[in-house]
Structures are given as structure tokens and as C-alpha cells.
Write a structure and sequence with these properties.
The structure is a single chain. By secondary structure, the protein is mainly alpha-helical. Helix content is 66%, strand content 0%. Helix 3 runs antiparallel to helix 4 and helix 3 crosses helix 5. The two termini are 27 Å apart.
């Protein structure tokens, strides 16, 4: 069950993508270049924080604001992002 009901159509659309190429095209169609970069930044924030990099270092390394990193840290702590153990 999806917690955020407004995202249901987006989730359902993305779930129909069966290849990496289709998913990439779908995301490029849905997101502006700025939104794509923000999504990339968010994932990098999660990864760096998971590796123990400090919030200030993450902000400096990625060129984002500390508030953005703090928001990512809260999402990570809340379990909103799951680390892929296969990496």
C-alpha cells in the first residue's frame, strides 16, 4: 500500500517501465533538468551520509545547502531511503 496517495499514479506509471532505458526516458519526461539534478543530489546525500560523511562535508562536496542535507538526513533516519547492501 502506498502511504502518499497523490504519488500513486506516478508510482504506477514508473512500475510499468521494464528496462533501464524506459525508466530513464520516463524520468526525463516527468522531470525538468533541475528536478533531475535535485533527485541525483538527494541520492548522493543519502549515500554520503550513510558512509559517515558529516552534513557540512556533504553540503560542501555537493554544493548544496546545509538545509538540503539536513532534510536528507531526516529522511534517511526515518527509513525513507533503504541502502542497497549489494553495493
Amino acid at each position: 500500500m502506498i502511504k502518499n496517495k497523490p504519488l500513486t499514479p506516478v508510482v504506477e506509471y514508473l512500475m510499468t517501465q521494464t528496462t533501464e532505458e524506459q525508466m530513464s526516458a520516463a524520468l526525463e519526461g516527468l522531470l525538468t533538468p533541475y528536478e533531475q539534478q535535485e533527485l541525483i543530489n538527494r541520492l548522493q546525500i543519502f549515500e554520503l551520509l550513510s558512509q559517515g560523511v558529516s552534513q557540512r562535508q556533504v553540503a560542501q562536496q555537493l554544493g548544496v545547502g546545509i538545509a538540503t542535507v539536513t532534510r536528507g538526513s531526516r529522511a534517511l533516519q526515518a527509513g525513507s531511503y533503504k541502502i542497497d547492501p549489494s553495493k
